[in-house]
Task: structure prediction
Amino acid sequence: MKTLTLHSYKGGTGRTTLAANIAAILAQRGNKVAVLDLDSWSPSLHTIFRIEPNSGFMHQYLSGSIDHRELITDLTPALNLEGELHVGVADYHIDVIRENLSKDRKWHMNALSRLLHLKEELRDEKFDYVVMDSSPGIHSSTVNAVVASDLTLVICKIDNFDLDGTVQLMDVLYERLDKETAFLFNKVPPPMLEEPRRSQVEDIIENAFGSDAVLMGFMEYYPEIPLSMGIEVHALTSPDLKFTRNLKDIVSRLSIVSGYAESASGEC
Result:
């Protein structure tokens, strides 16, 4: 089983949309996939999948008050998939979010143990992939997600705010934890992907992140995505959309990252 965490320096990068669609693509390829909402600031997987949880939320599992069967909702019966897609959502009520953000270090240490235990439970149930959507920036819940992952896919936008912040994340988080990372640039204006601007952008990225950084690619800004108002997984509803086709290529390219090439389908 492989575990992928999507992270970003700041919000608004499209991280949750990508997490949901990557999980759906992996399930379409015959894998058994769980996608988990570990975004303590603004949980939203419940919105994009348009579901209510079975009986529990992520913070309840991490606190030890429910088991994983109460957390995970199986969406497979409602979808036309070669594999399976399961979702664990976070509580989106403001009072609960405020409480979760105030948890102390001891709670988060116990939460990491619970998260690692959840991985073992899903592995025992023959899951092939776990995809985790984390909070932006540096928060204890984010650190836990990165620690628990095999690969962190860092979602960036091409602007100096995001580039500078992501460089700091590399220094204070990924490198200190010795975690494998890859970078995906999202919502890129199409003119920036045309020469000579594309070469200039690639030079800027290499200067910022170093020549050894693994760049998964660029996803253009697609107006169809915001037009769906955040309640559509386009990999499921619009397989011929350019966004979907390009993201499928990105998912296939995950195999270039050392240690992340194995899968039940052999496609990622």
